[in-house]
């Protein structure tokens, strides 16, 4: 089913330059995301997951820098592209949903303006068309009364609604790949479930591939097809979700699974 590779990360290494020399935050990381699948990248805070996401999009800020590897997306190595071409990839080819919607949204612009900007900056709609498209997107992500909410500012929306706005921005240009970095961390449990359901629905509706970054194996269990487990900047295990739950091979994977309420440590049958 998922046999066409969309994203192929090979030996990606990202270091942070410190007074004591470079520290590897992402250390020789390799994985693929295939068309139409959800790959879960799981690991605890500080394991290098978010730095991996930022490296794929070349958004690592100094003192961080990408020190090696390849990021092949639709056959092109993103690490070799000129910045102008890379800007076209961000949002239209690969989009990123950040974990903290309040800091990711600009407080001084309406949500309609911010979603519209994603469309107009990539030539997907003229200013005149943008508003109607924005209302459609708000409707798609299940924001009630989208015609009215389009003129709201971020502070007028709940955390769950702001996260939906970020998803609307991410899918605005119908990118083939969406990277969701801890998309439910700041939300309460009921809202978390709704956001995960929405991501699954958007994935099916817009034929997206999803790289889902989380520290929570419960989220992986509900959403991912395959999972890559990250520990101290390295991928220590990668397998279909069912196999990881049934027979985790790495001690670190087992410790993450043990944190899930109700997990008994292997197949029950």
Walk me through this protein's architecture.
- The chain has 269 residues and is an alpha/beta fold.
- It has a single domain (5-258), classed as P-loop containing nucleotide triphosphate hydrolases (Rossmann fold, 3-Layer(aba) Sandwich).
- It contains 11 helices and 10 strands.
- Strands 6-7-8-3-9-10 form a 6-stranded mixed beta sheet, with helices on both faces. The protein has a 4-stranded antiparallel beta sheet with strand order 2-1-4-5.
- Helix 4 (111-121) runs parallel beside helix 7, helix 5 (127-140) crosses helix 7 (159-171) and helix 7 packs parallel to helix 8.
- The chain is globular, with a radius of gyration of 19 Å.
- The model has no long low-confidence stretch (mean pLDDT 92).
- Low-confidence spans: none
The general outline is globular
> How big is the Rg?
19 Å
- The CATH level-2 architecture is identified as 3-Layer(aba) Sandwich
CATH topology term: Rossmann fold
Query: What is the helix/strand order?
Result: EEEHEEHEHHHHHEHEHEEHH
Give a summary of the structure in a few sentences.
With 269 residues, this protein is α/β, with parallel strands linked by helices.
Architecture blueprint of SSEs:
Layout: E1 5-18, E2 21-34, E3 38-42, H1 49-56, E4 64-73, E5 76-77, H2 83-92, E6 94-97, H3 101-104, H4 111-121, H5 127-140, H6 146-149, H7 159-171, E7 177-181, H8 189-205, E8 209-214, H9 217-223, E9 226-231, E10 234-240, H10 241-246, H11 251-258
Parallel strand pairs: 3-8, 3-9, 6-7, 7-8
Antiparallel strand pairs: 1-2, 1-4, 4-5, 9-10
